[in-house]
Amino acid sequence: MDSFFRETMYWVGLLLDQAMVTSWFRLVRMFPFFVQVELLLNVFVVLGVLTWWIRKNYGRKRVPSSFQPGVSCIVTCYGEGKDVILTIRSLAMQLYNGPIEIIPVVDGSDKNRTTWEAVLSQLDWVKKRPHRFLLPVSKPQRGGRVSSLNTGLHRARYDIIMVFDGDTSLTNDTVRLCAEHFYRPNVVAVSGNLRVRNRRVSMATRMQGLEYNIGIGLGRTGLAEWGVINNISGAFGCFRKDLLLHIGGWDTGTAEDLDLTTRIKGYFGRYPHLRIEFEPHAIGFTDGPTSFGQLLKQRDRWDGDLTYLYLRKYRWSFHPRILGWKNFFLYLLVGLVFQIAIPFLIWIYYIRMFALYPVSYVVAVSVVVYLGYLALSVILWLFYMIFVSRFRAEDVRSLILLPWQPVYSMALRVMMVPFTLKSFFFRSHLDSSMAPYWVLKKGKY
Fold it and tell me: Are the C-beta atoms of 190 and 277 separated by less than 8 Å?
């Protein structure tokens, strides 16, 4: 064991010495291809964040204070119980002078009596607040989340639609910050920011909190500045009602948020002036899986959904004439290369390494790759803290988690391979708790 450790450290020292004396170009080439692609993507994100920060702090604010359109908030409810009260009240207490219509849609209300009664208990409380209206909708038979969203869409009376999960709570200026984006007529949708509300419960939720901060808070801020935001979160998204009605609302199957985002972008090739924006300071708080086992089950569904949409349902839509050149390259780089191809390349890379080199050398290379990822994680965390974070006093605590971030990210990426294969060959995306099996089975795909 001691000899193996000494041999590994020898290789680590040799690789680091080589990195010290080489040029920047050769230093980058020392790392595997998947590290180089991630570095390129994050440079793209960081430049976008800097552009957003300069525009936000030094650009002119063109939204008049009189622009306060009516907003319909669809809240999808299933088994939240009394937790839905927090969501309803956080919407009713928004610092926004325009009218807000709150539409909680309780799926399977015959069995979910606790959730339905919790919604009804808020009727009198909401009625006392000016320009706030509560419209409870009961769906006695369960039809799934997409069914609830489309039901709420056809009940909504205002031109701006905001969508929330039943367990999502909000900062009190969320509606105002999102509504301001729609002052520009070419903005068709806005993605809100998400934070993990139960981040202090376990190590799994702490890592998810850090992942959401960097991946959603920082990542989407940078991507949105270039007009290529990758997804509008299902837990917190905003849309123009006429657009939703035009494209037929949400579609059944699964991953309704990525599905809807992809269909919206299907108009960008013909109408390149359209934009999907991101509001990093409009924040929704949601609960994450509390154990790593539950987290893997969640990512199994997420990765399977992504495979189903990219490789089956929309495989013929990835064309610059449909998506526009910017979003076409985004889907190639982020969707197909970064999220689907790279996990397979990591497996191939390490299988080849173990076949050709001694274990001590493979471990040494892994240590160097880890250090490279750690440096990148620290840089991204600093950019998030300096330019994006709205809760710096709380987010600074995640500094101690940074040494674990490369391991956490790599583990989730490696696990995507079996999840992708499972979905591709067995269509496991249909094994979802988001809707009854008979609803998913009747979907076109």
Answer: yes
Sign of the alpha-carbon dihedral angle for 171, 172, 175, 176: negative
b/e burial code for range 196-211 (CB count within 10 A of at least 16 → b):
bbbbeebebbbbbbbb
Question: What is the C-alpha to C-alpha distance for residues 166 and 169, in angstroms, rounded to an integer?
Answer: 8
C-alpha–C-alpha distance, residues 76 and 349, integer Å: 43
Question: Measured in Å, how far apart are the chain's first and last C-alpha atoms?
Answer: 53
**Of 17-31, 82-96, 112-126, 360-374, where does mean pLDDT reach its minimum?**
17-31
pTM of the model: 0.90
**Domains along the sequence of the chain with CATH:** 2-52+326-435 (no CATH), 71-291 (3.90.550.10)
Give the CA dihedral 111, 115, 119, 122, nearest 10 degrees: 130
CA-based radius of gyration for the chain: 23
Supply φ then ψ for residue 234, to 5 degrees: -65, -25
Using CA atoms, how far apart are residues 262 and 268, in angstroms rounded to an integer? 10
Copy the structure tokens of residue 96.
């926004």
The total number of residues written for the chain in this structure: 445
Do 198 and 287 meet the contact criterion of CB atoms below 8 Å apart? yes
Helix axes 33-58, 359-383, angle to 10 degrees: 10
Q: Which amino acid is at 284?
A: G
d(CA 123, CA 127): 6
pLDDT tens-digit series, residues 147-183:
899 999 999 999 999 999 888 889 999 999 999 999 9
